């Protein structure tokens, strides 16, 4: 969060956390914020990292709470203005950003996949519109993106690797801006490689079947198509199976790749 003190001239010593000027102003501001927020904001935890920068005196700080209410924060900020009236705090200068750096349950994403992201703001958006950005640019509904305003969700279709980047949503409620963002990596489409597709071998001669995948966190299985049995499996990137026929026959084995975390 931040606000602007217009009744004091900024000096570089306010950026030095060891200077007396910083220590004195920081104590006054932190005590005022802590006292008022503790009385006004439900489930308030504390305030930390009070810093000052130029622009009259821009005061920034981190406020910790288990519950966010824009109306409570606005009420508390007004009380801060009154408490620090000798410093002439600009009432309309308060801003707050609540940033969460992950979307829920986002699996591995591969080229050709579609994903759905839920904004799920931890503040009540009360009808305020959610803005979606991809790699810093605002997006809107089209053949690639579907924005569901009721669910505050974004669906991205048929992803390609070049669409990797930061996906984010934001909603402004009073002085609080809720932001959720995550770096989404679109991986190349997974591929299974086998050493031979057709093998002819005399009976009682061992045949080596090898199968590999081009991605991590996978499980590979050789499956006997006739019986459905899984004679071999591995959680490495390659699996090798030695087979020896007992009679003249044709058997088909299928290499199956599944993802452990998808």
TrEMBL record:
CDD domains: Ig
The SEA domain, residue ranges: 1-101
Segments forming domain Ig-like: 91-185
Name of the protein: Ig-like domain-containing protein
